[in-house]
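TODO from last week: model Putative osmoprotectant uptake system permease protein yehY.
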Amino acid sequence: MTTRIDKLGIAIALLVALGIASPFATVRANRIVQGEAVGLLSALPAWAAGAILALATLAALSGLLVTRTSMRLPMAVMAIVAIFLGIGLAGQFLEPDGNSYARISPASGFWILFLALALLAIDAIARSSPRPVVRLLYLVATAATLMVVLLSGVWNDLSIMKEYAARADVFWTEMTRHLLLALGSLAAATVVGLPVGVFCERTPAVRSAMLNTLNLIQTIPSIALFGILIGPLGWIAANVPGASAVGIRGIGAAPAFVALFLYSLLPVVANTVAGLDGVPRVTREAARGLGMTSAQRLFRIDLPLALPVILTAVRIVLVQNIGLATVAALIGGGGLGTFVFQGLGQTATDLVLLGALPTVMLAFASAVVFDALSEMTASRTQGGRT
């Protein structure tokens, strides 16, 4: 039988080879100086380096062979766990004795290997076409594995964990602020955007003007919009009694919240219009024939059938807001961006990662959850239509 080579597997294998050849860890005398790159074989004991090499190679081979797709996910998972444990062991192995100022960080080889193996795992999941519930279980298993690694102390000698240890209380405060900004602006946009979308769908003369206006807001860069809002909100805080007491100020969370709310309106309104437009005409006529009022048709027929499209908008908005909330730190809005900009100012890469990595993980988890919810809702909706 002829062995077939997978095209994506070739790219993954090349990335794995590049990751193995690149530095696996970086050793720095302190948190801000330039570091020394250390290869995989020098960063770990021989047995650990050999195990990572073997598992990464086997994972790359499983990606190359089209006839062995069932092995891709378990091999990718084992190799990812191996490099995660390996970088923690590198922190212990490379740290100079008695030097608490030294910093050990993942280098390019670690990140390239992680990228290649994550692509292999995602490709394996996509090929198996799992049900939404299974995808959610994969997400829970991934989060649980990461928590076990963090709580086990394996990474305690890495620089990013030392940055976290020095800011543990502040980290969770800023994480809470970040989530409040992202989720609060999403909730406000949903409450406002759904009625506006219904009105636009039922009033074609207003639809074009409304969507064009919201499109115009989307074209304004986030930094510029934050700056534009500082003046009006500052005036309101100074001249409207009680405004400052409820948190409305020229800088801080208020302009960030308003900006995220404005950015969120277009996806919610546009997808509400699109979802309602997609409701079959025959379904509406049948509901009308049954004597349903306009409000009954909206809440019992139109919105339930449009819900999958609306949930897609919620996913887009939440992922967008989680990312944009990072920029809010520039105007005193807090959030995980605080660590990103502090790290940039101090040339401390690991402090940047302390803010950036949780942001990426939150966005990824949100996308997976709402994709699954949207698909489950669509399945029920299709069953109802049938």
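Done. The longest helix spans residues 349-385.
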